[in-house]
Amino acid sequence: MATADTPAGHEGHHEHVHYTSTGLENRKIAIWALIGSECMLFASLISTYLIYKGRSKVGPFPHEWSCKTSNVVGKTAELVAGCAPADVLKPILDIPVTSQSTFVLLMSSLAMVLALAAVENKGHPLPAGAGWWDRCLASSKFWLMATAVMGATFIGYQSYEFTSFVHEGLTIKTNLFGSSFFTLTGFHGAHVSVGVLWLLTLFAIDVKRGLKGKNDVLLVDICALYWHFVDVVWIAIFTLIYLIQ
Amino acid sequence: MATTAAPAPINTPAGTSYAPGEATGIWSWLTTVDHKRIGTLYLWTALTFFIVAGIEAFIIRLQLMKPNNQLVSAEMYNQLFTMHGTTMVFLVIMPLSAAFFNYLIPLQIGARDVAFPRLNAFSYWVYLFGGIFMTVPIFFNVAPNGGWFGYAPLTTMQFSGGLNIDFWVIGLQILGVSSLAAAFNFITTIINMRAPGMSLMRMPIFTWMSFVVQFLLILAFPAITIALFFLQFDRFFGTQFYEIAAGADPLLWQHLFWVFGHPEVYILILPAFGLASEILPTFSKKPLFGYNVMVYSGIMIGFLGFGVWAHHMFAVGMGATADTIFAMATLLIGIPTGVKIFNWVATMWGGNIRFTVAMKFAISLVALFTIGGISGVMHSSPPTDLQQTDTYFIVAHFHYVLFGGSIMGIMGGIYFYYPKIFGRYMSEKLGNWHFWSFFVGMNMTFFPMHYAGMLGMPRRIYTYDIGQGWEQFNLWSTVGALLQGVGLICFVYNFVKSRKRGEVAPNDAWGAGTLEWSIPSPPPDYNFAKIPYVTSRYPLWDIKQPEMTAELTHTAPDAGVIADAHAVPMHEETQYYTAKSLGIPMPFPTIKPFFAALFMVLMMAGLVFIHLDLFWVAIFVMIGSGAAFVGSLYGWLTSPLE
Amino acid sequence: MTRLPYRRLGAAMCIAALTLALAACGGQEYPNSTFIHNSEINTDIIALWDRILFMGTLVFIFVEGLLIYTIFRFRAKPNAPLPKPVHGNHTLEIVWTLLPVLILIPIAVPTVKTIFKTQAPAAADALQVEVYGHQWWWEFRYPQYGVTTANELYLPAGKTVAFTLRTVDVLHSFWTPALAGKRDLISNKTNYMWYTPDAKLAEDAFNGFCTEYCGSSHANMRFRVYTTTPENFESWAAHQKLAAAGSPAALAATASADSAAKKAPARAAIIPTPAPVPVSNVGYIFPESKLKSHNVPHTPIPASLTFDDALLASADVAAGHALVTNIANLGKAPCLTCHIIKGEGAMLNLSDNGAKGPNLTHVGTRHTFAGGLFPTNAANVARWIKNAQVMKPGATMNTFGIGEYSALIKAKVTAGLTDKEIADIVAYLMSLK
Amino acid sequence: MSDHNAAAHDHVEHPTWKQYKWVGFWLLVITAIEVWVYYTPFKESKLFAPTLLLMSAVKFGVVVFYYMHLKYDHPLFKRLFAMGLGIAICTMFALLFLFGALKIGG
Ligand code: HEA
Ligand code: HEA
Ligand code: CUA
Ligand SMILES: [Cu+2]
């Protein structure tokens, strides 16, 4: 897990390039194994959310809910505190806002691949007559920062969502929905936050001494894999939790 | 750093427990990143916990020796069996297996180290601190008391308000970090650090089984991690995952636990299977029978292991369809396991069997695991399981597989690899005492439990009434446990004494065929002076007894070789050199993983203060050690490895 | 090292055989054996078990036999040539992959059949019993009869019983080994099971256990099942349904000679009740003489918990009755805040679901109490009221004896009952037939 | 750094901006359709959930195969990922089935 300024692995120590059986980098294998493992982590969280969906005894509920059109599995209306059959509870999940944050996160993945491509292409001089866009594409700093900023924006959206839920009376303690929703999206948010810190670290290294060379490509690559995975998890969450009732 | 002149060997060892030229002293152990030393640390620590958990078991047995006994209180008993189970599973067998993963995998695949040596040290320290954190409370009568699978809602604040369960839930979370970190490490190591020519299908079977186990770990642990997070959030932050009043479903915990729990039992047994598969061929003087099938059945067991978890829940009323599905899936596991049993017998068939202590342990694994497996099949039929579940019949089953399987296999492994690790043999005489008292004692303890269970004795009861028909079985069990205790004392004495006084062992202590026996005992810190080029499954037999591997397909060393600067044809090494004189870069010793582990454990443990009504202390400890943890991690990540 | 351990192996086998022999013919009774055909469910399970045991034994004999033969036959002999290095044999390996399948199919087929048979819905006319698990005692309700009792389950032989299983706190599991398999009691979930105690069972008593770990006194959460003839059962149920002896309701009932219990609540407030009147006909009660030794609890009474038994002899039922049922004494003896005594304490309006403790209406007819831990007699009940937590670890009932240390409040009880008062209460409770 | 033995890794074609931007484009388009559909009467249809699942599976696949360059990378990574994902999805479905929550769209 050496970061860029370690002497290990490059800068003349040729013998230190360890032989590996597959020719692949250790760290890349490890990150893919980690991603495989994370699948199980999020599967457990998502399953819990879906299992508990509709089992809360008190509101607020994720989607539009009324005592009459109860989609609460096996629960009768009087279990819901203060619910008269005519009441229609407002859905608490805000699809338009979440669509925006989803959009931001998806675009951050695009920025991330561009950052990786920029690091990979370091050392290849820009073609003659390259426009501002080519120069932009070649700037790993720009794309790393862009990804981090978009990640942070996503976190911002999430904080907004969480606080507005709390204002509407839904906290992690309110009901099963609150507990499983905040825990699931909170775990995802924590992953995004770690990713943002990771990206900022890479950015700092890039500013300090420039990211280039095989080892640095790897550094950015494993971060990118992690980042995309977090994005992919959100794709699942957005559909399963927000859109499908 | 090409080697210019042949380096001068340093003195050959006279059976020291570490190779000559290596640093000694406490500091060298705290800072070590050498997989062999870390393996040894795992071994010592896990054996210590074995004694602790064994004494707990022994007190359990004393309490149950006669009806209406009043040796320990109900509360203490509940802590004893919870800690006995938890300790045996998480602090004894898993780490004993990890000791072998650490020590053996790099040696067996011809590597100089694991993929991430410092992460490896980190895993060990986390295990040690986590283990201490979980074990110490029993001396203050506040140990976990929810059973080793801690069913909700008993473990929620509402029903277990004390600190007991806090230690359990945080402790397991800590141990999970250790296991996961180690698993990523070994997956990478096995995939990527094999010597040239060491294709997957040439890997020693122990490495193969360990490989499967690492996947079980990374795929099973997340489920319990999440289940534990829920419980932790419930207990500390007021979430409602297991809050009955909020409409929670206690089966959520059970399912998440057993989604982890069943793969876990294969995590416990496969390494022992691997060790037996090394021992049996060696002492039969025959290659392992049906290597390929052994590999595939191991993979099969691991894979099927993910589809049977609900067989622990036949009594919860899942419905006939679900019961049927899980029963059928469970029955299927008997097939790959049976293949293993038969292949082991076939390995011995026609061999020249030498009854060393290691061999006896390995044979008894085959014999005893079969018994446990058969009772497993008896549980897998839901209607009959309804008479068995949560009785001593289950206790009999899992001790036959865990003691008869895992412990017997691992004990065999210890006798087998002791000469490699410490450079000296363990005493066979004491070993025989150990073996026989274990073998007889374990049958005497656990066989009667089958009867007790089928005759109606529930498990986890601290007392039972006179005249229920269980007295004689319990008495036998207790006497058997005493016998096992005698065996354990023989073992501990043997283990400690032989380090200094055992017969000095050569490289190849037993005439085995795999790579680890081609280097000195104990191995030098760099393992292989020259990385060997591997051309078959038993490279050492290729040199020493080529007739034994004649049937195997070999690759010529130069055919399509990916040339590594250090790879040379298979050879034996007898001399010690220093890594420096050989120009082998070694990872620097570093204390950073130790501190990272210490502060991480402190950070997680700090939560406990909340329930002592010391909110600010908790915040202080957690933030303080969290910062120190990040600091250590930063120092670790930014300092060069070698 | 190469010497063969014949002698020691022999010794080991002798010991193993001895264990077996002892187990098989210890000359002891196994009252909780799962191998007794006492119900159709158990008969099905035993049939399945026999089949699996047979298959298992085949595998056992085959594998262990082969193993022992192999290690004896192929033990190393001096100067033996190197064995033939056999690496595998496809045919053999296929054979022993298929062999287990042949064993497993005859297990799988009857397994599936039995699953569906035993989990089918119960017959519609079955006797309904609602089982409620409490830390650490059992509540049994007979909704068709309006009866609620604790720790002792009466069943008519030959009639199917449909159980509805629920818990009020943590998980428990309901098990009578000699009658049927177990089923868990799960929070927020209702489980079902049924079985038919064989008609051949006349007056038999069985021990039952909680088999899901449920905290401190999990081991002490036992119960008894009494089977009897359907007539006896009806007689028992009819009486259990009535209000407690001497309660306003019961007096009203006796007053109007036949079952005028309907009007009872209205009169409850009016009629003063100085002393409970012993009941002449208590209906059927499982005869004490039919209890075998293993049905009678032998739990040791904690030596630290003393009670002057002489007080019990001179106890005053009326005083006890007043202590328990007079609302003025509720601060001192708040029994009726947790326990129901049918016909008493109407103002507390406690429902079955609201009662934290066992229904005491006919506690005097029960042979055991506190989760089947003790025989119901004055000496035991007195100690129980004095300090329940000493009698049963973790018990949630208050400690009442003045000067006793209460594990619940972690302090000595100052405002409680004197031994005399306890004796009176006990006399009253014992009169509740 | 040119003489390394990681033969497999470096010589494969990596996708470029041209491809990346199309992937990004489709991700956006599909998300837009998902959200749009949510506000149409189709939401009440039985096909709503399966359709959405399909769409998100496509998004999932595109990111994994192109952005995470699994398509171009060593097959080992595919296996590592597929194993985790496969077991995770199977477990999830099994759990939902066991809890009677497998009524997507219902
Ligand atoms: C090392 C650990 C280990 C291993 C390997 C196993 C292996 C198996 N286990 Fe066990 N099990 C436990 C550890 C283990 N178990 C523990 C700890 C518990 C209790 C947890 C708790 O409640 O605390 C438990 C509980 C448990 C239960 C739940 C019981 C209950 O609580 O009601 C069941 C039910 O199906 C079960 C089944 C099996 C089966 C079918 C196997 C199979 O893998 C066995 C396969 C092996 C063989 C069958 C023998 C060899 C095969 C042949 C010789 C071929 C021919 C044989 C046949 C065709 C039958 N186990
Ligand atoms: C690997 C796992 C493993 C191992 C090896 C063992 C080993 C033993 N186990 Fe255990 N056991 C479990 C795993 C294991 N167990 C689990 C998972 C449970 C379930 C827990 C739960 O329900 O939650 C359990 C539960 C369990 C119970 C049931 C408790 C209950 O339900 O109430 C019993 C009862 O007899 C028991 C007994 C024993 C005994 C006698 C041994 C013996 O083999 C132990 C032998 C060792 C000794 C007898 C120690 C002797 C030591 C000395 C004499 C001192 C020497 C000191 C020095 C040298 C310093 N175990
Ligand atoms: Cu109730 Cu155990
Ligand atoms: Cu299992």
Task: Tell me what you see in this structure.
The complex is a heterotetramer of chains A (245), B (642), C (433) and D (106). In chain A, 62% of the residues lie in helices and 2% in strands. By secondary structure, chain A is mainly alpha-helical. The longest helix of chain A has 34 residues. The radius of gyration of chain A is 23 Å and the shape is elongated. Chain A starts with 25 loop residues before the first helix and ends with a helix. In chain A, 52% of the residues are buried. The N terminus of chain A is likely disordered. With 642 residues, chain B is an all-alpha fold. The mean pLDDT of chain B is 92. In chain D, α2 runs antiparallel to α3. Chain D is mainly α. The N terminus of chain D is likely disordered. Chain D contains four helices and no strands. The longest helix of chain D has 24 residues. The chains are: A mainly alpha (245), B mainly alpha (642), C alpha+beta (433), D mainly alpha (106). At the B-C interface, α3, α7, α8, α9 and α10 of B face α1, α2, α3 and β9 of C. The site of one heme-A has 33 residues of chain B, from α2, α3, α12 and α14.
Identify the notable features of this structure and list them briefly.
heterotetramer; A: 245 residues; mainly alpha; two-stranded antiparallel sheet; 6 helices; 2% strand; elongated; B: 642 residues; Cytochrome C Oxidase, Chain A; 2 domains; 1% strand; binds heme-A; binds copper (II) ion
Note the topology.
The complex is a heterotetramer of chains A (245), B (642), C (433) and D (106).
Chain A: H1 26-52, E1 65-66, E2 88-89, H2 95-120, H3 132-137, H4 140-167, H5 176-209, H6 214-243
Helix pairs in contact in A: 1-5, 1-6, 2-4, 2-6, 4-5, 5-6
Chain C: H1 6-24, H2 40-73, H3 90-118, E1 127-134, E2 137-142, E3 147-150, E4 152-156, E5 161-167, E6 172-175, E7 183-185, E8 191-195, E9 204-210, E10 222-228, H4 230-241, H5 248-255, H6 264-268, H7 309-313, H8 317-325, H9 335-338, E11 368-369, E12 374-375, H10 378-386, H11 388-391, E13 405-406, E14 411-412, H12 419-431
Parallel strand pairs in C: 1-5, 4-10
Antiparallel strand pairs in C: 1-2, 2-3, 5-8, 6-7, 6-9, 9-10, 11-12, 13-14
Chain D: H1 7-10, H2 17-38, H3 48-67, H4 75-98
